[in-house]
Amino acid sequence: MLKSCFTTAIISLAILFVPVAQAAEPIVIKFAHVVAEDTPKGKGALLFKKLVEERLAGQVKVEVYPNSTLVGDADEMQALLDNKVQMLAPSLSKFDKYTKQLQVFDLPFLFDDAEAVARFQRREKSRELLRSMIPHGIYGLAYWNNGLKQLSATKALHTPEDANGLAFRIQSSAVIEAQFSAVQAKGVRLPFAEAFKALQSGQVQGAENPWSNIASQNMHTVQPFITESNHGVLNYMLITNGTFWNNLTFAMRSELEGIILEVTQAVNKEAEALNRRDRDRILASGTSKLVTLSPEERDAWRQKMVPVWKSFEEEIGADVIRAALTVNRRH
Ligand code: LMR
User: What is the average pLDDT score of the chain?
Assistant: First the structure.
């Protein structure tokens, strides 16, 4: 009798506890970014949300905040460290406070083309860089591509001298600042959310962006000339808060890692096509004249920029720069 009462009590307790466990709130991943949704990163964030909510239904929920609506360039990294957001994908230019080595991606004219950058991102050195900010609590999950940057301005930029005296909106990057100083121009650090207004108001006369960012922010409507310079990279690192990540169960982390791999492949496969589409749209809109560089003109820009590599060699590491250079076909 006593035994059966005991069994009944255990069963009742179990019944009481099962619904509680099932009703546990899903983990929420807030994924914030600064660009529009119809861009490589914007689409990547949405695909991540879709796959997570299909495969981890009821366990993980993803909230995507595009266009700096939750946090922007000035406060997103602190928000990640405070676990107020759990995922970001800042451009590789925005990490120099945490590691100087990633500045290698900013060195102008270092990579021959987007495929060379993609090859470098697959190399051991780049994989190491994903883990280089762990001591700061930042855990790198993947590289997401956008594309190569183009110079836009209120005047046609053919030679480096054409840029003399102009102000360009730049990301917060010492390398990019030095890049514009090398052609006697001024880099003005501004959050991405303020770029369009700064161009429109004349605070700055130029900018450097991949086609997709020019189009999605309508920058071409206030930039009558776009030089197809392909002079630098604008790619991203998908990052999370290390403590948040490590506190997930092993099974959940493994599932998320599989999803991230799949999304990364999709983003990196589509990024070039999206940039080509946006280039076509901009040129078809007739707002901006395309300036193409002759091989001699391109070489003149490159020659001006090579000293910038040298001045950052110590911070970045000669070995990192060498590793990046070896991915170019001509090496
Ligand atoms: C910029 O600030 O220009 C870029 O980092 C924006 C972005 O995330 O593509």
Answer: 94
